[in-house]
Amino acid sequence: MIRFSNNILQACKQLNVLADLHSRNVYSLMRAVAVGQHHDAITGTARQHVTNDYLRRLSIGVDKCYEVIKSAVTKLNYSKDQEITFCPLLNITECQFTSQSKRDFYVTIYNPLSHYINYTARFPANGLLHYNIEGIDESVVFPVSRKILNIPGRKSYSSNESIVYFEATNIPPMSFQIYKVNVGNESRKNKFKNEKITISSNDQEFKISLILDPKGNIEGIDTPLGKFPLSIKMGYYVSSIGGAYVFKPLNQEPTILKATSKPFMRESNYITEIEIEFSNWASAIVRVNNYNEYLEIEWLVGPIPIVDVGKNVIIKYRCKSIHSNESFYTDSNGRQFMKRRKDYRATWPLDLNLDPVSRNYYPITSTISVEDDLVRMSVLTDRSQGGTSLNNGEIELMLHRRLMSRDGFGVGEPLNEVAYGKGLVCIGKHYLVFEESSSRVLTRKLALQTYDDAILSFSNKKPQPPKDYPIKKGALPLNVHILSLEKHFNGIIVRFEHFF
Per the UniProt record, which residue ranges are transmembrane (predicted)? Predict the structure, then answer.
């Protein structure tokens, strides 16, 4: 929520300047995000009612910033009487506007970055209707995963829920790109196969592709650097003692969840998805996009059952051909990369008799990677998570926790979050990248785009393109980024960052 709120805040501050709005609504979210930097908010060591208050402040601030963004979109692209709709729950494929719309509508995409980007836009849809995006060669309609449909509290707005993907290319920096969605009555037929991915689009092969075994399980990846073995597993550590402050697993090895069914493939000329159901409460969708040089892994965990034991749920990515020599790298606040060695501290002797797993866990703000002399495998996160590498060529990340005991460090309540009367469901994304060990350009670019994501809005009325947009449609050098653009009294503050 803090990462999402900051994403909205940066766009809000930018558009307050670009549209010359002089709105004070931006300050509500600025204050809420500032309060959210408290160590108990960032690390999750507050009591539940305190956490609820952090979320309340952020929610109010986000709503006020949406008003600023709406005013800017209207001023720069539409007439004053146009109604603009935002869908903050797109991450769980929930949007009443797009799901119920039976007539043409418009999607406005705002790019808050200082560079041109390609962006995979998605919105919920009615599977009984046909959708065509003007000016887009490739789009696809997939059914919504059953796991997402069953998230507690999620609202359904159509009887045959689907999701539309399309690729928005070359969106100018700090600018809008607008697409018309034509809605028809003839539904599109999609073919879903369980077989090896050998798809091409417009005679252009996927930049990366997955290698599957005869049962449809992922066993490798084919990249511009070559073919590499790859496995993706989910599991959990059992904790007898644990809580907001303490991760103390009972065993050194996690319990690995075995897939409950054959992976299901949704296949098109543009995007291919492989959905893996590890249990009835843990799953992952692995996406291959023919525009991207990375894998997108959308994971979903919860409600975690705790009738037997508390669980610390993890995901493992392993490329056994990478000989990482028991070393790995973690980011420092999303910028510098720190080398870590298993069971080692540079400044004091480590007691190797205590906590063999948790002593090797580090905070991951943005990226964790393993490498050898030739290739690096990196995983980028969409939120701060704990991570480690306990085996050569392996990356492990903590996804979700639900415990029955207290750790005794002052919180006074077990880590047992609930929503809608059930255990909390978490959904998020990882991005898996293979690149030469001598370069981090792809990782840096992707981390920036993950942190400052594009913002979508929807409307029924045709936009009027601005005659004189405040920003010239040029881009900064690739390694220079506008960290923030905001009003300050009678002036404007622009902060530049040389980030690689």
Answer: none
d(CA 15, CA 499): 23
* 3-state secondary structure string across 439-500: CCHHHHHHHHHHHCCCEEEEECCCCCCCCCCCCCCCCCCCCEEEEEEEEECCEEEEEEEECC
Architecture of domain 81-190+452-500: Sandwich (2.60)
Dist CA 371 CA 322 (whole Å):
6
Q: Which CATH superfamily groups domain 200-438?
A: Golgi alpha-mannosidase II; domain 4 (2.70.98.30)
Is CATH 1.10.10.10 correct for 1-77?
no
Does this chain's domain 81-190+452-500 share its CATH topology with 200-438? no
Counting beta carbons within 10 angstroms of the beta carbon of residue 236, is it exposed (0 to 12), middle (13 to 18) or buried (19 or more)? buried
Residue 153 · residue 172 · CB < 8 Å: no
Residue-wise pLDDT for 233-284, tens only, equals 999 999 877 777 788 898 889 999 998 888 999 988 889 999 999 999 999 9
List the beta bridge partners of residue 266: 273
Rounded distance between C-alpha atoms, residue 422 and residue 417, angstroms: 9
Burial 368-379 (b: 16+ CB within 10 A, else e): bbbbbeebbbbb
Amino acid at 250: L
Q: pTM of the full predicted structure?
A: 0.92
pLDDT, one tens digit per residue, over 442-481 is 999 999 999 999 999 999 988 776 655 666 656 788 889 9
